[in-house]
Amino acid sequence: MRCRMIQRHSAWLLGCLVLAPTTTWAELTQTQSSVIQCINLEQFYSNQTLSFALFHSSIPGQLATTTHQFTLTEGGYAVSSSSEAKGLLTLFYSGQLTQSSEGKILPQQGLSPKVYREQRGNRPTQTSEVNHEKHNVFFSRTGQTTAWVSNAQDRLSLIYQLSALLKCLSPMGIPRLLSIPIITTSQLEYENFQLNQASLLLQTTNQTLQTWVLSNQGSTKDEIIRLWFDRTSFRPLQIQIEDSQGKQLTQVLKEAKPSF
Known about the structure:
This protein is mostly beta strands and 260 residues long. Helices cover 13% and strands 50% of the residues.
């Protein structure tokens, strides 16, 4: 059971507050001119490498290291994530988890994923590919196609899109609720995130930092997603997935190169 939970949820591993109706990313870019002007990830990320320590609530100690690499390309971006098990986790988790996301950077939308890939160990790579001309997404895992939704993010691009959104909206006031379409390896569905402020004790550095926290807690989903972002640099500090039994898989930032 523990093995299945770790393998299923670690793919994600991969917040003034006036209550407002749920706001979609598309609505924000259409109604907030400042968002359109400032969503330019080139000023935030350029050949950035983030290193995270991976922890599981039922296993002591650091279980793996996850490395994110964000690179600007001509007119677009490429981001990759690689997690390699160490110690006790190797008994439950075979091989390495890798993810990648590639796409364009659009002036009014930020990241626009084209291809999302995910692979565990020696298993076949699962690919989700957007066809913008046909307005659909093809999932190699199921062989099925579904309608594409504008502003959709994949599991990896989501983190960096949210980082940009927080930085853009911070001077004006950030909506309490966000509804974001997310592309996985088998479907495209909306996630409703609540936004709050909180102090976070960073386990890797023993520092207490002020953060924005995004969570889909309270939704009808089986798993709870929590994302912590530094309120000064807006970098992702912690990424956590909690299953229906309360078990948590958490990535905690160790190091960022070069500094933000």
